[in-house]
């Protein structure tokens, strides 16, 4: 089942990946001719088993990794050395471990880190920091030391560190890993409230179901499926083929909000 | 880093970190350069330190407990009078001690204790993250500010990781009592190093993703410059110490 959902025709897509090939330094092929187009304002889940190349793909989207061949475009602009700063501002990557993402001694400094590097005038920084933290419900934590926050709070602050750069695309790597159910629900509410294009790398199929109308399956470096999420999740043969599983008792019935 | 800081709202707490760091540094400089024979000057310094500790509302017992950290570093000072050479005096009916050794021990003990006391006060009244901000304000080279900042941020993370590894080993019956446990301990230290190194790489990628270009702008965020009055308040301690040193110099104490 390879069924490409055609994106909106007018504006340039938020993200466009064409025939992307990437070989690891040791020669193993990580990504094998990946094509992916994500329209402005879309929310897409990137599903796949461990080692499928999901994180490797994410690292291409803001130019951390350079393709062996192929094209990556952000908002119609190709990722290159000249466009690197703009691309990194436009594509906000949120890493899986918030302790990797939050490297500054205080939360406010961490949220300000991106905007300061991207040349936002210092006078605007406090406002940016406040808005980003407020958007994830962590405005009171500005002066905190990240180590004193709960895991769920750190995950939300990690998202704020990227929101403060005012990206047009948010790329989240396993946003629900290690979250307890309440923190997971908080995160869903935060993500649902954001007005931004989202690509979410995840194994958490119900979470993808809840937030992303469209799902893409990546396995062994190739896109294996690209369709509406309910359709993907209802195809148990497809899921099984790519080591994806719905939790016990989960029924992909009609989508309810 | 946890545990040293004592939340409070004293005048010392409210001083900007950069002022406290400079004041502590100057105070230590004055103490270290005071000749060891000026015994009363050291008494004067001790009074000053005690006054600042009182002003910062640090309970004396807590102060003393924190200062115990110097003990392993000064034990050898106790041995100097016993093994020292030169002229000797007999004390306590029969114990022969070297005069030069006694002076050397006094010198180390007095100066180390005052230095540690001032560091304990700095730590008790300043959060580690504010010290980093203060260092950035003092225009410490960007790389040093960042290294200090990462240490403050990650020391807990690494300690947690080490604790989990130790728990995991203990849960499988490992005890480090015998010499033959050393290979296992060494291996776990190696693992810890590799994990920390890998985390460093992931952090670097996260920094690049947000446009890191080597500058340390963000590290001074949330700190404020100190005006002349604030600097004068903070530097009152080293100034008073200098006055004590001067008085000791001119008198024949």
Helix-strand blueprint:
The complex is a heterodimer of chains A (257) and B (253).
Chain A: E1 15-23, E2 29-38, E3 43-47, H1 54-60, E4 69-74, E5 77-78, H2 84-90, E6 91-94, H3 98-101, H4 107-117, H5 125-135, H6 151-163, E7 169-173, H7 181-193, E8 197-202, H8 205-211, E9 214-219, E10 222-228, H9 229-234, H10 236-241
Helix pairs in contact in A: 4-5, 4-6, 5-6, 6-7
Chain B: H1 11-14, H2 17-33, H3 39-55, H4 60-67, H5 71-83, E1 88-91, E2 95-98, H6 99-125, H7 128-137, H8 142-171, H9 182-209, H10 228-234, H11 236-250
Helix pairs in contact in B: 2-6, 2-7, 2-11, 3-6, 3-11, 4-6, 5-6, 7-8, 8-9
Account of the 3D structure:
Chain A is of the alpha/beta class and 257 residues long. Chain A has a domain at 15-97 and 167-241: P-loop containing nucleotide triphosphate hydrolases (Rossmann fold, 3-Layer(aba) Sandwich). Chain A has 10 helices and 10 strands. In chain A, the strands form 2 sheets. In chain A, strands 6-7-8-3-9-10 form a 6-stranded mixed sheet, sandwiched between helices. In chain A, strand 1 and strand 2 (29-38) form a beta hairpin. In chain A, helix 4 packs across helix 5 and helix 6 packs parallel to helix 7. Chain A is globular. Chain B has 253 residues and is mainly alpha-helical. Chain B has helices at residues 11-14, 17-33, 39-55, 60-67, 71-83, 99-125, 128-137, 142-171, 182-209, 228-234, 236-250, and strands at 88-91, 95-98. Chain B has a two-stranded antiparallel ribbon with strand order 1-2. The longest helix of chain B is centred in the middle third of the chain and has 30 residues, at 142-171. Chain A binds chain B through residues 59, 62, 64, 85, 88-89, 92-93, 95, 97, 99-106, 108-110, 112-114, 116-118, 125, 143, 145-147, 161-162, 165, and chain B through 127-129, 132-133, 149-150, 152-154, 156-157, 199, 202-203, 205-213, 215, 217-219, 221-222.
């Amino acid at each position: 089942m390879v069924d490409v959902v055609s994106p909106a025709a007018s504006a340039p897509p938020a993200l466009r990946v064409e025939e992307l090939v990437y070989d690891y330094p040791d020669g193993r092929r990580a990504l094998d001719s990946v094509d992916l187009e994500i329209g402005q304002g879309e929310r897409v889940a990137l599903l796949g088993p461990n080692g499928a190349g999901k994180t490797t793909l994410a690292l291409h989207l803001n130019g951390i990794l350079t393709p062996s061949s192929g094209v990556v475009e952000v908002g119609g602009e190709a990722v290159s050395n000249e466009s690197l700063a703009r691309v990194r501002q436009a594509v906000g990557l949120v890493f899986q471990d918030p302790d990797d993402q939050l490297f500054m001694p205080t939360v406010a400094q961490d949220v300000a880190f991106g905007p300061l590097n991207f040349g936002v005038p210092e006078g605007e920084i406090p406002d940016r920091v406040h808005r980003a933290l407020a958007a994830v419900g962590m405005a009171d934590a500005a002066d905190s030391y990240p180590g004193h926050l709960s895991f769920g709070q750190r995950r939300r602050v990690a998202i704020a560190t990227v929101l403060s750069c005012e990206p047009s695309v948010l790329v989240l790597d396993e946003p629900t890993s290690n979250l307890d159910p309440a923190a997971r629900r908080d995160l869903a509410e935060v993500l649902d409230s954001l007005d931004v294009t989202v690509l979410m790398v995840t194994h958490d199929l119900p979470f993808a179901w809840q937030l992303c109308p469209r799902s893409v399956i990546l396995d062994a470096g190739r896109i294996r499926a690209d369709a509406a999420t309910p359709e993907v999740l209802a195809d148990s043969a497809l899921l099984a083929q790519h080591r994806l599983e719905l939790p016990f008792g989960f029924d992909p019935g009609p989508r309810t909000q | 880093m946890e545990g040293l800081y004592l939340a409070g709202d004293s005048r010392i707490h409210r001083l900007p970190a950069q002022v406290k760091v400079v004041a502590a540094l100057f105070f230590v400089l004055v103490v270290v350069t005071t000749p060891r024979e000026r015994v009363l000057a050291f008494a004067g310094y001790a009074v000053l330190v005690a006054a600042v500790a009182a002003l910062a509302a640090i309970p004396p017992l807590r102060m003393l407990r924190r200062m115990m950290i110097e003990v392993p570093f000064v034990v050898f000072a106790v041995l100097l009078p016993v093994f020292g050479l030169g002229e000797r005096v007999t004390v306590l009916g029969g114990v022969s001690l070297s005069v030069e050794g006694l002076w050397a021990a006094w010198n180390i003990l007095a100066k180390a204790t005052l230095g540690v006391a001032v560091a304990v006060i700095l730590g008790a009244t300043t959060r580690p993250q504010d010290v980093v901000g203060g260092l950035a304000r003092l225009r410490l080279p960007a790389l040093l500010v960042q290294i200090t900042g990462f240490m403050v941020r990650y020391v807990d993370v690494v300690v947690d990781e080490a604790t989990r590894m130790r728990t995991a080993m203990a849960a499988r019956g490992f005890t480090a009592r015998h010499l033959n446990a050393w290979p296992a301990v060494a291996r776990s230290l190696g693992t810890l190093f590799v994990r920390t190194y890998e985390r460093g790489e992931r952090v670097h990628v996260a920094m690049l993703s947000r446009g890191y270009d080597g500058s340390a702008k963000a590290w001074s965020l949330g700190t404020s410059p100190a005006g002349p009055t604030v600097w004068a308040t903070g530097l009152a301690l080293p100034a008073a110490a200098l006055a004590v040193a001067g008085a000791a110099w001119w008198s024949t104490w």
